[in-house]
Protein 1
Amino acid sequence: MRISSYFGKRNAPTAGAATYHTGIDIPAPEGTSLFAVCDGEITFTGFLGGGGYTITLEAENDNVKFTYCHVSPNYIVSKGDKLDKGDLIGYVGPKYVYGVLGNQYSDENGIPTNGATTGCHLHFGFRINGKYYNPLDLFSFT
Ligand SMILES: [Zn+2]
């Protein structure tokens, strides 16, 4: 597995992308399966600005949240679902999305993108009480 963008300060890879990166980016083809990193509850599914189509998983009994961004809009989970660690949670989404109301992100040709993204990848974020931490402090991805 390769990480294309680490947590923290960076040069924005595309217009509108954050210069302080609140997660890590893992390039993967569209349709790649994504799994729950812990037992928890789905607290959000939807289009979220620069994150594009997003899934939020909240760890049980804690204000610990994991976000999966730029995912497929064909959600297999919905808000309120309880998942076990390792359950399928969704899929890596397409680079381009069409017909999303209020989507302000697009590529250099004006084609609307799945949030601030230059290609298919998972943006994975980790928050405690609203503050972002480096997921690599918690997990080792190998
Ligand atoms: Zn990212």
Protein 2
Amino acid sequence: MKIALIGGTGDIGRGFAVRWGQKHEIIIGSRNSDKAGESAAAVMQLLGHVGNITGTDNASAIAKADVVVLCVPYGNLSHVTSGLQEAYKNQLVISPVVPMTYNGKFFQYHPPMEGSAALQVRSLLPQGVKVVSAFHTICAAALQDINRVMKADVFICGDDAPAIEIAAQLAGEIKSLRPLNAGPLAVSSMVESLTPFLLNVARKNKIKDAGIAVVSER
Ligand SMILES: NC(=O)c1ccc[n+]([C@@H]2O[C@H](COP(=O)([O-])OP(=O)(O)OC[C@H]3O[C@@H](n4cnc5c(N)ncnc54)[C@H](OP(=O)(O)O)[C@@H]3O)[C@@H](O)[C@H]2O)c1
């Protein structure tokens, strides 16, 4: 697949590039194409120059891709998404974006009026674009460490079965994340809100690089 990472120069974008770069064509997007090129070169070096990772501006990255992952902070999501609308055709868009704030004591979920970041993205993109939400509770630092075997689950929300399947395949390629279907895109607020919950638990209990996994008691 050709995967564009919008704002892929940041923490989670680098993690996806590291994990998917040897199997897929990765296009790191940025507001600054030189910065994207430097990020791509750094990941290629980390992977021993095995892979296909390039960098360009965000709009060009979207235009070239089958799958677009929105790797920007929530505060920039709306203008990045609506500002690049014309670059989209029929890509699959994955949103790991969590609208949350920190009040000095704890993290809180702060969804937009659409109900969740994913529903906001849905409302801003052309209808032909499929939107899936996933990876909200995956730690970027752990993702960036290619040798780290992760034990977490990836909760995936979406309204299109083939799109969910592609997101699940991409999650399953990261050893050893387990993709779980969490329901329609309307449920994304519940999944997004797990991130501030997880960060609060991690801070209070000094758990590094925390993740979430569902256990079966049977
Ligand atoms: N970090 C995690 O562990 C983690 C885990 C799960 C989900 N997420 C979600 O993933 C998203 C990205 O998180 P992150 O930690 O990777 O973010 P980040 O490193 O703080 O930023 C990612 C990129 O966003 C771009 N950006 C910053 N300000 C911008 C602006 N005003 N307009 C357009 N682009 C801007 C920058 O790219 P350029 O300067 O190159 O344009 C930056 O490198 C967030 O929505 C977060 O909720 C993060």
